[in-house]
Amino acid sequence: MDEQSARFPAGMVYQIPYSTTPFVTESLKEVVKTLFAAFVLVVIVVFLFLQSWRATLIPILVVPISLIGTFAAFSALGFSINTLTLFGLVLAIGIVVDDAIVVVEAVQQRLDQGGMTPSEAAKSAMADVGGPVIAIALVLAAVFVPVAFLGGLTGQLYKQFALTLAVSVILSAICALTFTPAMCALLLRRVEPGHEQGGLLSRFFARFNRGFESTRNGYIGSVSFMVRHVVLVTLTFGALMVAVWGLITTRPTGLVPPEDQGFAFAVVGLPNGASLERTNAVMSQLTRISREVPGVDGVVYISGYNLLTGQAVSYNGTAFIRFKPWDQRTASSQSVENLVGTLMGRLNSQIKDANVLVLNPPPIPGLGTGGGFTFVLQDRTGANAAQLSQVLQGVLAEARKRKEIGFAYSGFDPRIPQIEYRVDRDKVKALGVPLSDVFFSLQTFLGSFYVNDFNLFGRTYKVQAQAEGAQRSQPEDVNRFYVRSAGGTMIPLSTLVSSRSINGPQYFERYNVYGAATINGVNAPGYSSGQAIAAMEEIAAKLPPGFGYEWSESTYQEKKTGGQTGFIFAISLAFVILVLAALYESWAMPVAILLVIPFGVFGAFLGLSMRSLDNNVYTQIGLIMLVGLAAKNAILIVEFARLKREQGEPIVQAALDGAKLRLRPILMTSFAFILGTVPLAISMGAGAGARQALGTAVVFGMLFATLVGVFFIPVFYVLLQRVSERQSPFKRESGTPASAQDQPAPDKATA
Question: Is 168 contained in some domain?
Fold first, then answer.
């Protein structure tokens, strides 16, 4: 259009009144900003813990390698760069550095202990951490790969996100096993005690290290206390499981969160049978009032069309209300929710001749005509339109009483004024007029009939045959029209056709064969779409015999998705258990690792509750992700404790040693991921709804799994290891952290 506008006549300009492109473009820009913010935060966290630019550089170099490799995989997988794949890349930044951090930290620890060259330290570290790195990569891949094969809408949402993360995780593990050790041997050097103590940064790191050592000592003391009070820990874990169940069952549900797409649409309804001129006047009034609302940029409308029903009727109109760009609507009063409410209030209070519905468009384009729910009332007995309308009005009246429902609307109305023409078939036959010619004449004169196309002056024109508007404005105008009989005589249509005024529906709707009427509605402020759906189902439970209902459009997908949540979570857990069981050749260790997952789930739903967000597809993606991330922390501790146990250490001492040695890499990797995900949780602007839902679940879930779950992991290991060695799991230790009962026989195989 910019190129074409250069050839416009003087004084002519163009404007794009409605386009979905700005929302997509702005959403991608916001995700890219989040991507860079996440990268910067990850660099800061890694440098804070590693305290060396040499050591920090190594895991940071893994990020572009893994991401470039992931982009290369997009071509093979047929993915585009869209919101979902970019979400995956944002989260991948915090994940791909994990394996490299574990390796770098292990190498640096051996260098600082002395007696090893960088190459020897890298080889020694890989002998210890190679197993956990492989286990973590396989667990994260096992979490995501199964859900990528789900069908339907949710399967498409999961697929791109899951495979993006799975590919990046596998590539990061390959880098951690090959690239990272080589870089450690080249770049890392031993840090001498007291080196550069005079610098400001060195003094900060010294204080940080003292604080961390104090924290680690307190952590080990707390874990030692919990190991001695296993029964109390078990009861606490049971209470946590009850709390998790309570949070899950009480959290409202939804399909996907509503989005600020930069526009809303309004559906206008005038009295039945109102003329198009009256509709045009109301639409002009709507345009003027809407433009006066702060945050509204422009309005384009279509008179004579109802977007919700898809019907072209003279007494309905549809307007698209375009908002100002997102960076110009920073005030909370100009959010899409508040703008929709403000427009609804002003338009209905100032326009007296019509009812106006203002709706936010559906968050997934093409999945329905508007946000909210779509309820289809079915007549399964073949009742007439009046009976269907009576039941429909009863459902609407009950829906408007429910606090969960903001409003409910149906375009079905059997009281529309209509003209019925009756053909006297006996007279038609007696006069020798073909019956088809009678109907063809009525269609051509009163409606229209397409004849052909013709080309003139380089353009193509359609030929439509119909009577002039002034000649077909009244029912009696049928007297003006004639039809030819078989004998060639012109016979007035008025001698063959009679008319009468009736009332009836503008259109007939069928859904799954049955006669139907559709109800569109939205949830009230403070309630989720899942709660509004539940309210409608309670109303539908009282339908008269012979009437039923179905859900359609996005509501159908939401109901279908709700039934898949448990299955998706279960299949992810099953794959993780199988992978861990194969790695450890034991059922005890996988269970000890997976028992930390409820801490992440509790944190995720606690965060959703604190921010008043519903449980939707994006939060479910975050929960699936938490399975792998929470298991990662447990793997680092359990793997080391298992090795110590195999070397002959008592169970409790092995658990404490694993917790002490792995606390630093656990906190380092966890906080790198958490802070890398914070920009998602606090994002604003286009597409913020999805980013906030996913980011909140992941940030709060991982935070709780790290700060609280890390205390329980050693206890779970002690419990399950004792069970696998046929010891009493609840025996209480006294005095020292380990007792002689924990000592294995020299030839006893450990699980």
Answer: yes
Element (H, E) at 269: strand 263-269
Q: Which two tokens stand for residue 684?
A: 């604003």
597 with 673, same domain?
yes
Please list the alpha-helical segments (H only) found in 501-552. 529-540
| Cβ-based burial of 736 (10 A; exposed 0-12, middle 13-18, buried ≥19) | exposed
166/244 same-domain check: no
* Packing angle of the helix pair 597-610, 688-707 (nearest 10 deg): 130
Indicate whether 546 pLDDT > 50: yes
pLDDT band at 615; cut points 50, 70, 90: confident
Q: How many whole angstroms separate alpha carbon 359 and alpha carbon 369? A: 9
Whether 154 and 49 map to the same domain: the answer is yes
Is 317 in contact with 302 (CB distance < 8 Å)? yes
Percentage of residues in the chain having pLDDT higher than 70: 94
Show which of 463, 485, 504 is a domain's final residue: 504
Residue 249 has pLDDT above 70, yes or no: yes
**Residue at a domain's end among 504, 530, 563:** 504
pLDDT surpassing 70 at residue 750:
no
Examine residue 394 and state whether it is found in any structural domain, yes or no: no
Question: Does residue 508 surpass a pLDDT of 70?
Answer: yes
Determine, yes or no, domain membership for 304. no
Q: For residues 715 and 678, state if they share a domain.
A: yes
> CA-to-CA distance for 489 and 576, rounded, in angstroms?
85
- In this structure, the answer to whether residues 75 and 214 fall within a common structural domain is no
With beta carbons less than 8 A apart as the criterion, state whether 135 and 576 touch. Answer: no
pLDDT at position 736 = 43
**Sequence-ordered list of residues with C-beta below 8 angstroms from that of 547, at least 6 positions apart, any chain:** 377, 378, 379, 380, 381, 391
Amino acid at 179: F
Residue 515 is assigned to a structural domain of this protein: no
Q: Where are the alpha helices (DSSP H) in 354-497?
A: 385-399, 425-430, 435-446
Please indicate, yes or no, whether residues 143 and 207 belong to a single structural domain of this protein: no
Q: How far is CA 458 from the centre of its chain?
A: 49
Q: What's the pLDDT at 751? A: 33
pLDDT for residue 146 is more than 80: no
What are the angstrom distances between the C-alpha of 626 and each of 188, 212, 477? 32, 25, 72
Pairing of strands 355-359, 547-551: unpaired
Same domain, 145 and 238: no
The pTM for the full model equals 0.77
Structure tokens at 604: 């995720």
CATH of the domain at 446: 3.30.2090.10
Q: Which residue has the higher pLDDT, 192 or 516?
A: 516
Residue 731's domain spans which residues?
200-250+586-751
Question: Within 10 A of 173 (CB to CB), how many other CB atoms are there?
Answer: 23
Coil/strand/helix, residue 605: helix
Q: Which helix (H) or strand (E) holds 310?
A: none
* pLDDT (average), residues 187-193: 72
Among the listed residues 628, 629, 659, the one whose alpha carbon sits nearest the alpha carbon of residue 641:
659
Same domain, 132 and 206: no
Strands (E) in 433-577, as ranges, are 449-456, 459-465, 482-484, 490-492, 497-504, 509-511, 514-523, 547-551
Backbone angles phi and psi of 267, in degrees to 5: -110, 125
* CATH number of the domain enclosing 103: 1.20.1640.10
Q: How confident is the model at residue 46 (pLDDT cuts 50, 70, 90)?
A: confident
Q: How far apart are the first and last CA of the chain?
A: 71
Question: What's the angle, vertex CA 600, arms to CA 672 and CA 218, rounded to 5?
Answer: 70
DSSP 666-685: HHHHHHHHHHHHHHHHT--S
Provide the pLDDT confidence category of residue 147 given band limits of 50, 70 and 90: confident
Pairing of strands 482-484, 490-492: antiparallel
- How is residue 616 written in tokens? 């939707």
> How many structural domains are present in the chain?
3
pLDDT of residue 700: 93
